[in-house]
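ugh ok fine here u go
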Amino acid sequence: MRVLLFERKLSFFAEDRKSRILTHPTQQIALPCVGPIKEKSLMKLPHNAHVAVVDGNRFMLLTNTGKPFEPALEMVEQPDLDPSNFSAGVRHQDDVSQRTGATDLNELAHGAAVAEWLNAKAVSGHLKQLMVVADPKTLGEMRRHYHSELEKALVGEIDKTMTGEPLDRIAKVIAET
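structure:
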């Protein structure tokens, strides 16, 4: 269960003997939280961390050459992957997508191929810190294929389609998320 911590001012004052100023002590209260927590904070992307920008058809690997709260992204590579895991996502389709054919198995297989490629890089030690930016369906499929070493390297995930955007726009979205 998630809890939110709030500080509550106590109903009495205490005298600070050194400065002779009355202080107002606070107490932390833990309250149960229902639903998502929306906070306005900036995403921290470490310097030299890699960013994988993925959708069902494209994959770009970028690196942060900027500061943690002001990322500047540069292209590292765009691997041409062979999506071979066509069983990816078959069991996890919702009923509506199965009936209407809205889930493209090629896109899910591409997401699985990207996860496998990232797994190999993380296991070999080439990826120390990684952020994944992918559309929600591809990100969900990728999560099913994450290796434990890749999970350790993850510094964040953003479920948004950004493959067609310029690098500065991607960096802005990362900083504001």
